[in-house]
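Suppose you are handed only these lines of text.
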Amino acid sequence: MDWGMKNRMSKIIKPDGKTVMLAVDHGYFMGPTTGLENIAETVGPLLPHADVLMPTRGALRHYIPADTDVPIVLRVSGGTSILNPDVLHEGIVCSIDDAVRLNVAGIAFSILVGSSFERDTILGFTEMVDEANGLGIPTLAVTAVGRDMVRDARYMSLASRMAAELGASVVKTYYVDGFEKVVDTCPVPVVIAGGKKTPEDEALETAYNAMQAGAVGVDMGRNIFQSEDPVAMIQAVNSVVHDDHTPKEAFELFTKLKG
Ligand code: R5P
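From them, the structure of the protein bound to ribose-5-phosphate can be written out as follows.
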């Protein structure tokens, strides 16, 4: 691996081999998502506890101060909105030149394996991987997004392994029973998305189970920024990822820090 790629990967995955990525890219297909109406207000207090921030280029330019030292993994795919859930169909929505201008540590691209448009999304993904690899920029493949995807270990393994074989440096997917299989058959680090907001103790348990199964961390959004106390929640998530806290210990920490 080239020095630049290694250097950027070391910004995304910390020296302990783990990472807490804060996903705030939801606006690219959901508009002003609950909790992200003003991203600056939400994200500002969370940044000291995030290893990586995952925004869109518009959010980065309009809401995040340029002197932030939190590494950025930039969302570069998109193309359809939440108003069209049956035809999720993503392509390249941000050039590698603009990503470089934004000084990113990595880029993120969704591949919709199993959808009618899987080929388009995969070809867009590999085009970006080629461009990003040429500049030493890692690509995070976001897999398993889509309303009708069967979310089981068999599907997640297929989508994650495809992403890695097609050039992803990191894979983001959803936690499912049998997650060990997903991790064991994927040759690059795996992080989990949080998914829809659930009670804090459940989200912490999901993060814990994913770590136990071999994930290197989380790329979590709504379960942090829609929490009743987002700053307490990201610290609790951090304790699971970096300090091996059990879900019980992490929830106790959340309760102690909250409010
Ligand atoms: C989905 O494609 C986006 O990348 C989200 O940022 C991602 O799913 C993580 O957010 P959440 O934890 O809210 O699911």
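What can we learn from it? Residues 23, 25-26, 110, 142, 145, 193-195, 219-223 surround ribose-5-phosphate (CB under 6 Å). The chain has one domain: 3-257.
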